[in-house]
Amino acid sequence: MMSGSKRRVLRALAATVASLCGVALAGGQAAPQQTPQATSADKPIMAEQAFKNVQLLRGISVKEFMEAMGFFSASLNANCTTCHGDASSGSWDKYADDTPMKQTARKMIVMMNAINKSYFGGKREVTCYSCHRNADHPKITPGLAEQYSTPLSEEPEEITEQAPNAPNPDQVLDAYLQALGGTQKVATLTSFVAKGTYQGYDDPAEVPVEIYAKAPGQFSQTVHGANGDSHWVDDGRSAWVAQSEVDTPVPLLALGAGDLDGAHLEAKLYFPAQIKRLLTNLHVGFPISGVPSILPDTVGSGIDDRELNIMEGKTAAGNNVKLYFDKKSGLLVRMVRYTNLPIGFITTEIDYSDYRVVSGIKVPFRITKTWVDGRSVTVLNSIQLNVPVDAAKFLKPAAPAPARAAIQ
Ligand code: HEC
Ligand code: HEC
User: Fold this and answer.
1) Are 132 and 78 in contact (CB under 8 A)?
2) Is the dihedral angle over the CA atoms 270, 274, 276, 279 positive or is it negative?
3) Residues 141-175: pLDDT tens digits?
4) Are 10 and 204 in contact (CB under 8 A)?
5) Distance CA 377, CA 194 (A)
6) Alpha-carbon gap, residue 228 to 236, rounded angstroms
């Protein structure tokens, strides 16, 4: 059983992007530049404005700060209460109290920054995960079993160059557009309206979800959850997450920096005709198969044993993205994007499966989103293309009304 606080956090992070790692990626990357859109977008609230006791992780948005907490939890295999104490599971205010673990974690941030500064020319080569590898006390002695066993084949963290004999990026993207119904047909796609069910990681209940998207990059998702409606809205310039205060310390958040860049990419992928313009510096790695699924069997990633072409590129804001294409069908089956934070990369993964033809274009009926501390499964049961969408769907959502229920 998961502790209440872990469950709450999974929920807290549920509409929030999160998930991290990308340690090799972490090496030597400059902070992403802001896109022109980002500078004119609705400004996010900074962590030090929203919280009472932020001493080190200042100058990042609340959402990025919460992602950083997810990164700590993932790196150490910890719950929120591991560092914040059991009392924190009952109240967001308690997170401001200093515990010995929290103070140790602060020392670790200072140590990590000092190592990177002194020995790696300021590049973020070492993160919490470099040492901790999913444990509170890093191992000191290499295991002989590990030394003598066949290493597990892992997919590369970063694809840095075009693999010889791999198809070039244009070939892979053309095959994708062809598989969807042809470039011309896909170019006629102007809107996407869908209804279905949404299942969070912590809460097995399937609740209703509605999705509205408009080309080139407006997106709106409403989940009718147990604690009220939650919204994820991208108007093409700004993006917001609105959730009940049971689920988050700050009910309405504007996304900034990498979060905003990632939200824009997710929205634009609903309109694949523009896919060649979304990323730069594209290259395709060695084809791989047997990518381990991080989803339970009941959900299934749709990737399984398929042979995949993995393409890596950068968004306009300089964030790394990997696109996984099924070699046989040509379809996009996974997108992994990285958000650059001072403490490391946050990974967000979206799996697209159950492609079916709607009005002559193939669209995925199942979309699974996974991040450091949560996962959602969206199963669509009706999709309509090119129907009018009310512009009000893409307006900034209101902060949800205060919940009567206390945090469970
Ligand atoms: C490895 C220890 C660690 C873990 C695990 C951890 N935190 Fe934190 N948390 C910290 C530290 C350290 C700070 C203070 C950061 C600073 O001073 O810059 C903090 C601060 C916070 C704050 C700001 C409180 C305030 O008002 O000042 C919130 C909210 C918070 N954490 C939430 C969470 C949540 C939710 C989780 C679980 C996903 C979590 N934390 C997991 C170490 C941790
Ligand atoms: C260079 C390696 C290294 C890095 C980087 C590192 N740690 Fe640690 N950390 C350690 C070691 C070693 C210990 C165990 C020390 C001990 O047992 O006294 C530890 C212990 C801790 C503990 C106390 C665990 C407990 O159960 O008492 C916390 C919390 C922690 N680290 C958080 C972090 C966070 C958060 C980061 C990233 C900001 C981080 N560490 C980065 C090596 C590292």
Assistant:
1) no
2) negative
3) 988 888 888 776 667 778 888 999 899 999 999 99
4) no
5) 14
6) 25
**pLDDT tens digits for range 354-375:** 999 999 999 999 999 988 767 8
Tell me how far apart the alpha carbons of residues 220 and 257 are, in angstroms, rounded to a whole number.
Answer: 19
Residues with a CB atom less than 6 Å from ligand 1 = 9, 12, 51-57, 69-70, 72-73, 76, 78, 80, 82-84, 95-96, 101-102, 105-106, 249, 373
Q: Summarize pLDDT for 211-229 with one digit per residue, the tens.
A: 999 999 999 999 998 888 9
Do the Cβ atoms of 333 and 349 come closer than 8 Å?
no
Q: What is the pLDDT of residues 20-32, one digit of tens each?
A: 222 222 333 333 3
CA dist 240 and 255 (Å) reads 6
How far is residue 77's CA from residue 133's CA, in Å, rounded to a whole number? 8
Q: Name residue, tokens 């997106």.
A: 219
Token code pair at residue 278:
């979304």
Tell me, using a 6 A CB cutoff, whether residue 72 lines ligand 2: yes
pLDDT score for 3: 40
Atom of ligand 2 nearest to the CA of 140: 12
pLDDT of residue 248: 83
Q: Ligand 2 atom closest to Cα of 127?
A: 5
Residue entry with tokens 């809205």: 233
